[in-house]
Amino acid sequence: MADSKMKKINILTIALLAYLLIMSYIGWPGRNSNSNYTEYFIVIGVTVAVIFLLRYLRIRLLKMKNKRKGDK
Question: How many CA atoms lie within 13 A of 11 on its CB side?
């Protein structure tokens, strides 16, 4: 059961990273003359950090849920 939950967490993380790659390609600032690369890369960095924070929290929640099941 835990393996299938981890697969779901992995699939969700990969899907979010793929979505970020597609959106970052679409929003590439190199096409504009007044591009702001600093803001672009900061937004990408914060988004990656949020994706991995969500992954960490999901894994932690899964471990706590399994621990509660084991106690009962």
Answer: 6
User: Would you give the end-to-end CA distance of the chain in angstroms?
Assistant: 17
Short-list 66, 57, 54, CA closest to 3 = 66
Distance (Å) of CA 2 to CA 14, 43, 46, 67: 18, 33, 29, 12
Is residue 59 pLDDT above 90, yes or no?
yes
pLDDT interval class at 3 (50, 70, 90): confident
What DSSP element (H or E) covers 46? Answer: helix 37-71
24 pLDDT above the threshold of 80: yes
d(CA 49, CA 20): 12
